[in-house]
Amino acid sequence: MRGRRLVQISVSSWPQPAALPRRTFRSSTTSAANSASAGGLDITGHPTHSTSTVPGPNGLPSRSEILRRLGRSSRDRQYDVVVIGGGATGTGSALDAASRGMSVACLERGDFGGETSSRSTKLIWAGIRYLATASVSILSPRLLTAPVETMREFLGEIKMVMNCHRERRYMTSKQRHLTNWVPIAVPFSSWHVSPPPFNHWLFGFFPVLAPLVFKIYDGMSAFTCPPSYVMGKAKTRRMFPQLSNQDIKYCAVFFEAQHNDARTNVAIALSAAESGADIANYVEMKGILWDDKGRAAGVRAKDRMTGKEMDVWAKRIVFAGGPFTDKLRRMEHCGSTGSDDIAANKGGEDTELSTDGGDAGNGYMIPAVSGAAGTHVVLPGYYCPNNIGLLDYNTSDGRFLFFLPWQKHTLVGTTDTKSGAKTLPTPPEDEIQWLLNECGKYLSRDLRVRRSDVLSAWQGWRPLAADPHAPPRRTSVPRPRNQRESRHRHPLHCGGKVDDMEGDG
To answer: Quick check: helix, strand or coil at residue 340?
Structure first.
């Protein structure tokens, strides 16, 4: 992908087909069994009438043509790689492989960017929070009690942050049609914070250290980003009149990159198709294909638009399901075919699987990915200036909270709650209320956020990877290395940050 410019998306570049039959979708009030098996996907991708073939964008094959190519694969006519998952990580893996001359198939069970890749804070974040956590680890007493492990964790975090800076720099310079810089202000109302952020005494002095920290942060990008700066009390009050009731000392301002995450995802998918990958949405993996030697050799897939199943044979399988990756691993681990529970394993038997750990050779599968749910809300634009955002670096529970200008509105997020990933979730009301309560800290008494001010809300799951083959107490994996191999040595590419996508691919 290095050196390539992602396809620019323009409605005018799409050929206009003749009148198409009107699509109607099945109601979400299907049977409970079907709803549970589809995992929330039952309300999408099921037209009740056959549809005409819609041409692809100029120079790219139509979806129908791609499905015909997928169906023509066989034991003797295999793809080099089949990627399961069409988020930023999956499509990025497909683009990387196709750019290297491999024959690639990429299958997405929903729409591109339908899950985590469209439910972010819209930042290409270089990871200033991870710079802080790395500093906490190296300044902790563990440096004396476990120096080797502490240094390993510190270097892993720093390496991740440096990689994020490199990829952010690349994306903002090469993909200017997809990205922009946004200044983010950090207001300080005192010179010392108590209790200190990250529970470390040094960060109690962050109001004093912030300008220096942000200059170091600029330097990690080789000063290619707009420079951080200090904004005085008077200018802060003019810029943020909603802070007028607070005794603001000053604001430190740094820059992050911003993008439309779903549009970036679709651009990567189009670029992968342009490079020769056969990439299709609404095609769900239903099971694993096995060769005569008992090795995984492809996947059984289902076109969710028509219900037709096909076998996609490949030399390698890449699981890029984000927080849903363990579900894909289960299909390989014990031969289960997923939601429809049709046997397609080596012995034709359907086995139970425990994810509680244990001996993988005795039918257990140690989890490789857990999920952290993040909720965001969209408020009217008058809650934030249209050209600068705001960061609360020390919320009531220690999270980072962003107030960002987004398409003439205000985007607020995110929460961070460990839980199992769900498809098409409804944001929990308690998390929406928590966000609104935190907003109140940065608003004057005359400007109260009401529940009715919430114009939109969404929840997405970030994948948190762990190495299932690691020894006890050493299972964590830094985000830029969210890559492992499954039981049959197929890569697991869990993702987690869009600016890790290309480096991981």
So the answer is: helix
